[in-house]
Amino acid sequence: MISRKSERELRYMRKAGRIVALTLRELEKAIKPGVTTGELSALAEDFIRRQKARPAFKGLYGFPASICTSVNEQVVHGIPGSRRLKAGDIISIDVGAEVHGYYGDAAATFPVGEIHSEAARLLRVTEEALYEGIKKAVAGNRLTDISHAIQVHVEKHGFSVVRDFVGHGIGSRMHEDPQVPNFGPPGRGPRLEEGMTLAIEPMVNAGTYEVAVLEDNWTVVTKDGKLSAHFEHTVVVRNGAAEILTRL
Ligand code: MG
Prior knowledge:
The protein is of the alpha+beta class and 248 residues long. The protein contains 4 helices and 15 strands. The strands form 4 sheets. It has a 5-stranded antiparallel sheet. Strands 1, 2, 4 and 5 form a 4-stranded antiparallel sheet that branches. A 3-stranded antiparallel sheet has the order 3-12-11, with no helix packed on it.
């Protein structure tokens, strides 16, 4: 069952989305060689709480921190801690916030200092793929029109799309129906309708799309140890272009 949100619900989701976007902007300013992922998480938690919101990942399915920090070959769900960032790293940060019972969710991958040109290309293509997907999040299209557009863009540039983790509906819960895969044929799945709210989130690997989970039971890594990037926005399906809730 895919819910369509009322304007009242969307007002809260806009609030949550804006806080997520502001948090990512604060984090981007703080990312530099020498900072630890734990320091970034503390900064995010403090910032979100000062906006009178709640860091939505904390405790979600038992996740132990306020944000996910995934460095280099880590794909998603990395746990912040004592790891110190180095120049040349890339770091994917996933932020969720809850306001008045409604959720926003977004992610971005950032360079740490100067990065290799191939890493920069991975970041660029992944963000472009997100926007290719968002372009298809229009009332009247089918769900997998989004999936297909993302996969085509990623593979055209020689990268691969993670299969084991996907985007999702979002609203009064962080994860609602439907699942939003980043791959597959177009023209399948439910027809998109005005007011549906989706978190679209391509996870893109430089090498194989295969992933593994580390012994902490959270951190997802690429099987071949190559880099991975992750960009995500929460959007509202409209009759025209989708409304992006997690962009400033
Ligand atoms: Mg998400």
